[in-house]
Specification:
Layout lengths: L1 H13 L5 H68 L2 H24 L3 H23 L4 H8 L1 H74 L13 H50 L8 H32 L7 E4 H11 L1 H6 L3 E6 L3 E4 L1 H18 L5 E9 L2 E7 L34 H11 L3 E5 L6 E7 L10
Parallel strand pairs: 2-4
Antiparallel strand pairs: 1-3, 4-5, 5-7, 6-7
């Protein structure tokens, strides 16, 4: 039976049905099938028990009435026979004869309703004795044989009473048998109910798995598309309409992959095309600043400085754009190496030493030696972008604090600055692409709005978290990274 059920489920899953609705209906059918069987079985046995009960009660009532009637008929026949014997009136003989036929008819009814062989033998003996007695009384109205026949009524009454007692015992036995049958039927129905409930639960669980699997596959495919994972094909197994939906999702994946490739290609081309004239502009501005073409006046020098600053800003924007495009297009890290995050932080601080000195910033470091598994360059970019953001928004003479510590199986990096801070309504926006918050202090060159976006992409690649906290006057950005990385294989 298990093999048959398994083969049916396999055929339902792999070769049909053609729609999700049909699969649901089949599931409801399989779940309801044991319950329907239990109801039919219960109805059949209850009806049979009711018929048997009705038959038994009807037979018991008839047997009780007929045995009581036998005694009354024997008493009446005895009275009519004695009256006929004393008075010799033919009317009494006719009455006796009518009661004799009624008595024989009652015995026939009892023989039809009672099934005990001993009682049937007693009834037959009573009928034979009464018939012989009737023959004597009817043919010899005034003779010694008639007196002897009339005196035999007493043994017939005793025999009828014995038959009545025995028939009552048989009725009691049949009632007890019916009671036992009803108890057995009740137990059978209870066991059937207990058996059908887990069967229905098993069917429900099986079809829940069948219904849930393609939905999970679709949900997983949508999550992959939302995470920008376009390389793995999407395959959904199940009903044909859900398989078709999976094919459409795979088509969408292909389209998104084409758009992503076109976007990356466009950014690379535009960046490359912009770099050539930008290089010429920077070189020209440098030549003017070095007064190669002649001495510059104060206003001319001011114009040249504006050109140099905007050329630097434009180059920074192009580089940030390329870095961000690389960050979002790269797959999650697959090569893991133990990395000293405190050493990376020290290196980044060293790279920004000149900027810190130029703005007279006080840097407080609280670095605990920490090792994480990850990509060295991505981790460096995370720390670099956070420190750059803190330097940009800190006023001259301000303070920046970098704290690194371990917490169970996590490494926590906190970066504090003394700038204007992050407004509560900006908390979810600062990581958006090209979003720029409040203007930085001291007229520093405005950023591109990509630094924190790149940092977030690299943090997510390491399965970490980056969030702004609102527990200080300035800005507080916190990065939480797991020390051990678990690379999950993409499910088929």
């Amino acid at each position: 039976m298990v093999q048959t059920l398994r083969s049916h489920l396999r055929s339902v899953y792999f070769y049909g049905p053609k729609s999700f609705l049909t699969l649901i209906l089949i599931g409801f059918g399989f779940v309801a099938l044991p319950l329907i069987f239990a109801l039919i079985y219960s109805a059949f046995h209850v009806e049979r028990l009711a018929d048997k009960s009705q038959t038994t009660v009807y037979a018991a009532v008839r047997a009780t009435q007929n045995t009581r009637m036998l005694l009354e008929q024997l008493t009446g026949m005895e009275r009519s026979a004695r009256q006929y014997h004393v008075l010799a009136d033919p009317a009494f003989l006719q009455t006796y004869e009518e009661k004799h036929h009624a008595f024989q008819k009652t015995i026939e009814d009892l023989l039809a309703s009672l099934h005990d062989q001993a009682i049937r033998s007693q009834l037959q003996s009573l009928a034979d004795k009464e018939s012989a007695q009737f023959q004597i009384i009817n043919t010899k109205p005034a003779s010694p044989q008639t007196d002897s026949a009339i005196s035999e009524f007493l043994p017939l009454v005793e025999l009828a009473q014995q038959i009545s007692e025995d028939s009552n015992k048989e009725i009691d036995s049949e009632v007890e048998d019916m009671h036992q049958t009803s108890e057995r039927t009740l137990k059978t129905l209870l066991w059937l109910s207990f058996a059908m409930i887990p069967t229905a639960i098993i069917f429900s669980a099986l079809f829940t798995i069948l219904l849930n699997r393609p939905i999970k596959q679709i949900d997983h495919a949508i999550r992959l598309l939302g995470d920008g994972e376009f390389k793995n094909p999407i395959a959904v197994t199940g009903p044909h309409d859900l398989e078709y939906l999976g094919q459409r999702l795979d088509w969408l994946r292909g389209r998104l992959l084409d758009v992503e490739n076109q976007k990356n290609k466009f950014i690379r081309h535009v960046s490359h095309e912009l770099k050539t004239p930008l290089t010429a502009l920077r070189e020209g501005a440098e030549l003017l600043a070095d007064e190669v073409v002649g001495e510059l006046g104060d206003e001319q020098r001011e114009v040249v400085e504006i050109l140099q600053q905007n050329a630097v800003r434009l180059q920074t924007l192009i580089e940030d754009l390329l870095n961000f495009n690389t960050a979002v297009s790269q797959a999650p890290i697959s090569s893991l190496n133990p990395v000293r995050l405190d050493e990376i932080t020290q290196r980044v601080i060293k790279d920004h030493k000149l900027t810190l000195v130029a703005k007279n910033l006080n840097l407080d470091t609280q670095l605990t030696p920490c090792i994480v598994e990850g990509d060295y360059e991505k981790l460096r970019v995370i720390v670099d972008n956070l420190l750059s953001n803190a330097i940009k928004y800190s006023p001259t003479g301000g303070k920046i604090t970098i704290a690194l510590r371990e917490n169970q199986s996590q490494v926590i990096l906190d970066v504090f600055d003394s700038g204007p801070g992050i407004r509560a309504d900006e908390g979810n926006k600062i990581f958006d692409t090209f979003y720029q918050g409040s203007p930085p202090a001291d007229g520093h060159i405005k950023g591109s709005g990509l630094g924190l976006s790149i940092a977030r992409e690299h943090v997510l690649a390491h399965r970490g978290l980056i969030n702004p906290l609102f527990d200080t006057l300035g800005a507080h950005l916190q990065v939480i990274l797991p020390q051990k990385q678990v690379i999950h294989a993409s499910p088929a």
